[in-house]
Amino acid sequence: MPEPSPENRPEAEPQPGPQGSPREGEQGKIHVDADWKAEAKAEKERLARETTESDQAARAGAAGTGAGAGSMGCLPAPSFAGLVQTLATQAAIFLSSERDPETGRTLQNLDLAKYNIDLLAVLEEKTRGHLTEEEKRLLDRYLYELRMAYVEAAS
Questions:
Q1: Which residues touch 121 (CB under 8 Å, ≥6 apart)?
Q2: Is 55 left (phi over 0), alpha (psi -120 to 50) or beta?
Q3: Residues with Cβ within 8 Å of residue 63, at least 6 apart in sequence
């Protein structure tokens, strides 16, 4: 599987030890900082806008034929990108150690996170050779980012 381009990969930043050198055993450990999270959020928002625009164009075409007019309400039309984003969002939620401000509980569940990542991998395997370049990049990027986040959360 090809690796995502360097701008989509999180940087490995070992934390300095007492003498300014990386701590033993932390060589190559991924450090996810706020800048990377902000970039990932901006990328998700950009993809969501693009998906919405293409879905609106598809609906406009379908509305002229009467196919599905009004049946979806305010939901976007089903798409490959929507499916990938749904599974990736579920995995990200289960990888997060953030606490719910109302209950104080965390939703982190590494088994469910791995399950959703594995579902994306099955989707990748079963659609190999049948995706557009954009769909392939989207799936590859989510798989890479989620796998790296899983490794970090599990360690």
A1: 143
A2: alpha
A3: 69
**pTM for this predicted structure:** 0.53
Which residues 6+ apart lie within 8 Å of 81 measured at CB? Answer: 47, 51, 135, 138
Q: How far apart are CA 147 and CA 131, in angstroms?
A: 21
First vs last C-alpha separation in the chain: 24
Pairwise CA distance, residues 127 & 121, whole Å: 10
d(C-alpha 67, C-alpha 63), whole Å: 6
Angstrom distance (rounded) from CA 119 to CA 83: 11
Q: How far apart are CA 135 and CA 141, in angstroms?
A: 10
pLDDT in tens, 20-79: 444 555 555 555 566 767 777 777 887 777 777 776 776 666 555 444 444 557 888 999
What pLDDT does residue 60 have?
65
Contact 131, 80 (CB under 8 A): yes
Helix %, strand %, coil % of the chain (to 5):
60, 5, 35
Parse the chain into domains and list their residue ranges.
Answer: 78-154
